[in-house]
Amino acid sequence: MARKASSTAKPAPGAPQAAEESVTLAQKYTTELEDLAAQARTDGAMTTRLAPYVKCFAVLSLLGVLSNASVLSLSPVYGGIPSGIYHTKILMAGCFVGWSGNVAFRDILPRGLRADQLLPVLVAYVPLVQFMLFRFSDKLGALYGPLLTECLTLFPVAAVTAAFVADELEGAGLPYVPSFIGDAAPGIGSWGVLKGAEVLSRQFLSRNVGKTFVLTRMGLEVLLSGLYAVLSPSKLLLLTAPAFLHTAVLNTHVMTPSATLALNTTLLDQEWMLLDRRESVTGYVSVIESLQRGFRVMRCDHSLLGGQWTVVQGIQVAEPIYGVFAMLEAVRLVDIVKVKDEDASALVVGLGIGTTPSALVTHGIDTTVVEIDPVVHEFAAKYFDLKENNPPVLVDAVSHTAGLVEQGKTYDYIIHDVFTGGAEPVDLFTLEFLQGLSDLLTPDGVVAINYAGDFSLPAPKIVVKTITTVFPTCRIFRESPAPVDLPLGQPDFTNMVIFCLKAPHDKLSFRPARVEDFLQSRSRQAFLQPQHEIFQSDFLGPEDKEILRKNDTRRMDEWHKTTAAGHWDIMRTVLPAQIWELW
User: Fold this and answer.
1) Are 501 and 452 contacting, i.e. CB atoms less than 8 angstroms apart?
2) 356 vs 50 pLDDT, higher one
3) DSSP code at position 484
4) Which domains does the chain have, with CATH numbers?
5) Do residues 205 and 68 make contact, with C-beta atoms less than 8 angstroms apart?
6) Which pLDDT belongs to residue 37?
7) What DSSP string runs through 338-398?
8) What are the start and end residues of every segment in region (Disordered) (predicted)?
9) What is the pLDDT of residues 500-553, one digit of tens each?
10) N or C terminus: which one in the chain shows less Cβ crowding within 10 Å?
């Protein structure tokens, strides 16, 4: 008879152990999920805590870049130095007003609107406001023009930025703040971020401005407006449409073919033509031609690097329009020089349109040009018939000439001709740099140094004293006669050329110019032989003992502000205001 099956089955061997392991794994899995969830909550909280700092860092960095873009955009109309006189004060004032008045500003805003949402709108209108105000530059002048323009553009952006940052940091709190810093920490840190971004972007732009559209003046401002919009999107972005439309269609400062065509259409009505333009490391560079008067000039920001007559009495010519450039060629006329032109060598520091180096090359002299701006060289070759017998050296002159000294190079002639924006590059007039030029001269070599400045200020005397400290025998000539009975305080802005010998001599004298020296040029017939001499005994008194050293150049800055303003006034008499304002 079959055995009755048991109703309770016996567990298989090892089953309890497997069940226990399954429960343990489930518990571990659950624990891990809980840990991950806790970590996610922690990470989310950390992200939430960091978000205000990241946003503040971003808007402060963008303000630092906009600060540089603002000065760059003002420079073609007012010059680099006048554009920067009030710039830092306006930036600081805007930040102070926004930071200290953030609570009041927050109360003024409509409910639900944040301060940062205003920034894309304000920045979008910066090019439009600048364009409109530039039309009044002649009335505003070199000092008040930049002041008013940045008060209506940079100041509000700085104020709103500071108000937003103050609100964000006030709500977020600052961990790990030393007690001795206390409440000042947010402000100090914010200003540090802003200035750091300003310095870094300035260094970057000094090397790369103009290389792409977004690195041009208007391109940079448009890019910044777009970045602000991405950072703080809102319905207010609809208000930026008119500003973007004006910039895209009507703003002649934008570096596009259509804007250039529109600009030329306007200029042709005034019988001017823009031949070319580019933004580069030394500023906004362009070549403009007067169809009525028959000359063309190269412009860099609010100064002229040189010019040529193109037509005289209906005849095509290529004559320099400024006598000082012809006068520099008189280094060949110094009678101590015994070397023939075909055996001589020359170093030219600063190119301009190339009047002087072209003449030296035409005379057969082995000539090397050192010019920091490649666009200046390109335009000189393309539009001013630059003649060369050596490749140009497109680098900073200070470092390059120091390298030439180390190599033991020497030249029979050195032409020192650097000028832009109403002020000389100070580093190129220091005792150390001039000593380097002396080392590069042959024993019987001649140097000609062009200095442009306001003779009513101390700066020209310091420069001349520095030059004569290095070179023992010099003579000084003005481009134009000295004014008679100049009223006290009135500027006396002009060019002077200082001719010097490396070795001491009783006197530096010039041989009479011959027909072949003039290169069939009427301008050289009039200006090659130096005139309007300034005697050192009259120019420098016993009290004039200061010299300019490499580590002591700041004292020239204040004088350069005055010089630049005077130079701006002169430039407005050379070309019509509309030419400067429309770029």
Assistant:
1) no
2) 356
3) S
4) 42-174+182-255 (no CATH), 259-316 (no CATH), 322-570 (3.40.50.150)
5) yes
6) 54
7) -S-GGG-EEEEE--TT-HHHHHHHHTT-EEEEE-S-HHHHHHHHHHS----SS--B-S-HH
8) 1-21
9) 999 888 889 999 999 999 999 989 999 999 999 999 888 888 888 899 998 888
10) N
